[in-house]
Amino acid sequence: MRPTGRRHNVPLPEPQGVPPHWLARLEYLQKGLQDVKYQIEGAPEDERRGVPFTETVMEDELPLNCRTPAIAEYDGAADPMEHLKQWFNQLSVGAIRSFQEFRSLFWHQFASSRKVQKTELSLFDVRQKEDEPLKEYLQRFNNVVLEVPAATQEVKASAFSQGLLDGDFFKSLAKKSVSKFDAHLARAAKYINMEEA
């Protein structure tokens, strides 16, 4: 059966004298056009007009192998779509002539939002807070350790012990120093169990 219009469900007339493989291709193309038309007609008016892309960009066809990139879920405090829409909508109509230009504008706008790679020095910035249990300090410290995969056992051990408050656990480490972070973790686990008992 030939494709029908989505809204009217009226069958299209059968063409005469056309090879079957051409009919199949024609049906495929007609379905694609109907889907596109439906999507365009169904889109809100403000999303189709007034975009900052030039007509040339808007009329350019996407390559057949073009895939929408998988973008990781935004975990910020604000609505990411609203944030992007505000930026996008403030661009002048017809201002973007190419993808490279769009990429450049986007990059300059959001460059400050990029996550900065932490270094081993970042570990030394983590300090135990007053009245903070050892368990919570260790959790915060380990969160930073995960962002510095190149940190050695010795650097992690040194940064961890330097960030400790002067308490029982710190005194224990001062009496019997160990150079490996794994050893610090084992000893910390014993103190955490005592704190929570």
UniProtKB/TrEMBL annotation:
Domain of life, source organism: Eukaryota
Domain Retrotransposon gag: 85-165
InterPro entries for this protein: Retrotrans_gag_dom
UniProt xrefs under PANTHER family: AMINOTRANSFERASE-LIKE PLANT MOBILE DOMAIN-CONTAINING PROTEIN, CCHC-TYPE DOMAIN-CONTAINING PROTEIN
Protein name (record): Retrotransposon gag domain-containing protein
Originating organism: Sesamum radiatum (Black benniseed)
